[in-house]
Specification:
It is a single chain. By secondary structure, the chain is α/β, with parallel strands linked by helices. The chain has a single domain (about 20-250), classed as FMN-linked oxidoreductases (TIM Barrel), CATH 3.20.20. About 40% of the residues lie in helices and about 20% in strands. It is built from nine helices and eight strands. An eight-stranded parallel barrel has the order 1-2-3-4-5-6-7-8, surrounded by eight helices. Strand 7 (about 200-205), helix 8 and strand 8 (about 225) form a beta-alpha-beta unit. About 50% of the residues are buried. Bound molecules: SN-glycerol-1-phosphate. The site of SN-glycerol-1-phosphate (1GP) has 14 residues, from strand 8.
């Protein structure tokens, strides 16, 4: 499948900055207006893209949020679904993920088969992404919902082996996920080993709470850093700016 315009834009942005900064918006975290405002704030203060989604979405206004974000913001809005029922019109692209660290066929292939026809019908750009859950100190929503076991955080070689398999199967991006609100973020040595093992673009997220943690993972080789939870309670744009600078390598 050809690389689409949003993926091209992300890759081209990497010529100007060390790593990209993605802000994750949880559709259940606020009112539609509040979430759209948070998206605008992130875009204004240096985010390169907005991810929208989560492992569990219970907000009936989800479609309104997705459409509103796309209308209001200039940076890419990328759907980050927890399953096929989260595919909705509006976003510029979708991280079309497969949960390769798990052995649950539902999240390896079943949800993808069910969502594929809709993604095609919506003419939504898909960014093929292998998704790996990494152990992070306590049970996360994604571990519980997906009914899969995470990769041990102190076993970077296992993560690298999964990344190699993903690359051989034609994925283009790999997401190292500690889980939203994780106690511990994905360890930098694991990021480094995965980056050194494959030519995939590496996304790292989950439990990143300080610009320093973000910088360490960017320095370890992450092409993109995702922060969600940390910005949900604060309307302070300067904090987003600090993260963006740490990730971009200013
Ligand atoms: C979750 O990686 C993202 O899928 C972001 O995690 O909400 O902990 O920043 P946080």
């Amino acid at each position: 499948m050809a690389v689409g315009s949003i993926e091209t834009r992300l890759i081209q942005s990497l010529e100007k900055v060390r790593s990209l900064f993605f802000v994750l918006l949880d559709p259940d975290s606020d009112s539609p207006d509040g979430i759209i405002e948070a998206g605008l704030r992130a875009a204004k203060h240096g985010a390169d893209a907005l991810l929208l989604g989560g492992s569990f979405i219970g907000n009936p206004a989800f479609q309104k949020i997705a459409a509103g974000l796309k209308k209001e913001t200039q940076i890419p809005v990328i759907l980050f679904p927890g399953g096929c029922s989260h595919v909705t019109p509006g976003p510029d692209a979708i991280l079309f993920t497969t949960l390769i660290s798990g052995r649950n066929p539902q999240y390896l292939i079943d949800e993808q088969v069910k969502g594929a026809v809709l993604v095609r019908s919506l003419r939504m750009e898909a960014i093929p992404t292998a998704y790996m859950l990494i152990e992070s100190g306590r049970t996360t929503a994604v571990e519980y919902i997906s009914n899969t076991r995470p990769i041990p955080a102190d076993k970077p070689a296992i993560a690298a082996a999964h990344a190699m398999a993903a690359e051989l199967m034609g994925q283009r991006w790999i997401y190292l996920e500690a889980g939203s609100g994780a106690l511990n973020a994905v360890p930098a040595p694991m990021v480094k080993m995965v980056r050194a093992s494959v030519g995939l673009h590496v996304i790292v997220g989950g439990g990143i709470r300080t610009p320093e943690q973000a910088r360490e993972r960017a320095e370890a080789g992450a092409h993109a850093i995702v922060v969600g939870n940390h910005f949900e309670t604060s309307k302070d744009g300067s904090l987003i700016k600090e993260f963006a600078a740490a990730v971009h390598g200013a």
